[in-house]
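During the second year of the project, the team shifted from modelling isolated chains to modelling whole assemblies. The rationale, set out in the original proposal, was that interfaces cannot be judged from single-chain predictions alone. As a representative example for this report, we include one of the complexes processed in the last quarter. Its constituent sequences, exactly as entered into the pipeline, are reproduced here:
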Amino acid sequence: MFDAASTYLDLPDVFYSSVHPRKASKPRLVVVNTALAAELGMVLGDEPTQANWFSGNVLPIGATPFAQAYAGHQFGHFTVLGDGRAIMLGEYVLENGTRVDIQLKGAGKTPYSRNGDGLAALGPMLREYIISEAMAHLGIPTTRSLAVTTTGDMVRRETIQLGAVLTRVAASHIRVGTFQFAALQQDARLTQSLVDYTLARHYPEYIGQENSAAALLQAVMYRQVDLIVAWMRVGFVHGVMNTDNMSIAGETIDYGPCAFIDAYDPQAVFSSIDAQGRYAFANQPVIAQWNLARFAESLLPLIEIDQAREIIDSFSDLFRTRWLTMMGSKLGMTNADEADAKLIQQLLDWMHHNGVDYTNTFRELDTISGLEDWRVRWHQHLARQGISLEDAKRNMHQVNPAVIPRNHQVERVLRAVNDAGFVDVLQEFLDVLSSPYQDMPADTPYCQPPLADEVVHQTFCGT
Ligand code: AMP
Ligand code: MG
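Output from the structure prediction step:
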């Protein structure tokens, strides 16, 4: 599959532990992402070979697998964590020199497993595969999913379920929590080594600035702002924005209880464990800023507190500007500003008040009933900016998806695979999600909001 040394292992060894994936008794390939493999330039063997690779039964030549150490604030509480059910196979280098992590999720215990079994069930791994690939096709930075295999071994959750391994591809798995773990060691040289490594790997254009830690903080903030703005464009609720689930490379990572909103509701929460609504849809920017403040704290030996504060304080204005531009683009505007903000807010309020579908409203702005007065004002805003309705509509079709992985569809597909092994149902869903901006026949079930009895109210981590 690949044959590359992991540069991560050049870091001081507190940052990882060597560990071997567990043997799967009967590895079987459920789904493999041949499009992604081709994109990566990765040559896959025959099906048994793939089942062996993607379950961790056979290691790629030269692989020295390891688990990463990290810490993190989970729902506001600090804990020492680490890869408890994920094992890095190694780094794969693309033809253009880009280096990505290849990681197995659910491949057995590691020194960081605490009381966990290091395993994963098929349902949650397929869920991550479906949603992460949908996110990628929506044009949102994300970890990718290369394959899911079943292991042939059972895992104990609320019920006994078939075990599975997800092969995850990521720019890297360095998290805010990795820096928190470094800070915990109380040795600024460790933090500096992680800063240097991260800059070289993800932000080489920032190398050479006067203060490397400040440069990194700034760079990470820009990417996080863009990421959260992108989530809000498509109605994504991450659900578990703990600092250990915040990627320094700015990718969406850790698809646990995440979900897309159907009816627009800024307070939407799906995760069964988020009782306080800490990670509600509209709270995501506030939480991203809070997480960045924890990141800044972990860099404090290397950066003046005033400088850190200044960067963190600039988050709100930057977010507001980027969010306005994004929301404007959903209305076909090229450069929305505060003058358009009221128009945007009126639309959101109308959707909220009427419990209207977020995704479909933006696809049907031109015809949806109940918006007649608003539409007149919208056309005036466009005219004032010299944008024709045709141009607006064309641009809107590139930012407003026709199809998202709606929760009730995700559940339906997972049930079909889990109960009856209907992999063709999964493949059809993945195909639909692979071109989310294309017009779909209006009656396709994939574009329909859930009926009252189909609404998914809660999602679960599945750990
Ligand atoms: P998550 O909620 O997926 O971000 O996981 C939080 C922490 O719990 C991480 O350190 C995971 O590695 C760990 N964890 C989650 N599930 C398991 C499991 N089944 N076995 C061991 N550790 C786990
Ligand atoms: Mg996590």
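Residues 228 and 285 are 6 Å apart (CA to CA). The longest strand covers residues 144-156.
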